[in-house]
Amino acid sequence: MRQQIVAGNWKMNNDLAQTETLITSLKTKIKTSNAEVMIAPTFTNLWQAYQTLKGTDIEVIAQNMHFAENGAYTGEISARMLKSVGVKTVILGHSERREYFNETDEILAKKVDAALANDLRVIFCFGEVLADRKSGNHENVVGSQIKNALFHLQAWHFKNIVLAYEPVWAIGTGETATAEQAQDMHAFIRKTLADQFGHEIANNVSILYGGSVKPNNANEIFDKPDVDGGLIGGAALNADDFYAIVNAF
Ligand code: 13P
């Protein structure tokens, strides 16, 4: 069976004290779960979060990293730096990185390579904007995002890859894809992988849905056969909401 995952992407929210408060609350609530549970605080709070959550079933993951090993890249963070503060998983390709920080498929392919070369697990995000959805071009867009950043990999790399379909029009808007829209796209994603890497790889990759997942819709979305969990933004900032979503499995 595929690994089920619920990951909270905190984005640029929560200072150190707020991080500690939220984590302490999550730690008391989330004891066991059918899903792997992860939270992605901002870089400056990763070490503290890692220390606080040591020995629990909640993994601390990073929101981004640079592709270079080290060097003159002011303001950037490398895979090795993440690993040195206990991080084993990194989110790459989030639409906010693509949109506001000009991360192209080409850059993302390099980041994926660097993460995998450093034994980090990657949660690779992609998704179409509203215009693509409206014009019926969403599968083409998603297909090429996957192809451009991941098709150069070897099949065995996929043991360290999780995919996250996040339609841009559903992020932070309160407008969720319907469970059927999510299922249709996830099935398409799995087929795209199967065509390139074979059915075994495709059937074993966890594909998460992200975009306005809340306690009241998580169950319906997670119930779909090709949806293996969620990447949660806003609702991950509230301990009760995140706990309810984790329990939706
Ligand atoms: P929201 O859950 O706030 O829509 O954000 C989703 C997201 O971008 C997770 O990475």
Report what the structure shows.
The protein is of the alpha/beta class and 249 residues long. 41% of the residues lie in helices and 14% in strands. The chain contains eleven helices and eight strands. Strands 3-2-1-8-7-6-5-4 form an eight-stranded parallel β-sheet. Helix 2 links the parallel strand 2 and strand 3. It is globular, with a radius of gyration of 17 Å. It starts with a strand and ends with a helix. The mean pLDDT is 96. The structure holds 1,3-dihydroxyacetonephosphate (13P).
Helix count equals 11
Mean pLDDT level: 96
In order across it, which strands form the biggest sheet?
3-2-1-8-7-6-5-4
Assembly context of the chains: single chain
Evaluate the radius of gyration. Answer: 17 Å
Helices and strands, in order, run as EHEHEHEHHEHHEHHEHEH
Which structural class fits the helix and strand makeup? alpha/beta
Strand content: 5-15%
What is the number of E strands? 8
What is the share of helical residues?
40-55%
Give every kind of bound small molecule, once each.
1,3-dihydroxyacetonephosphate
N-C termini distance: 14 Å
Backbone shape: globular
Please summarize the sheet with the most strands: 8 strands, parallel
In short:
The chain has helices spanning about 15-30, 45-55, 80-85, 95-100, 105-115, 130-135, 140-150, 180-195, 200-205, 220, 240-245, and strands spanning about 5-10, 35-40, 60, 90, 120-125, 160-165, 205-210, 230.
Key phrases:
249 residues; binds 1,3-dihydroxyacetonephosphate; alpha/beta; 11 helices
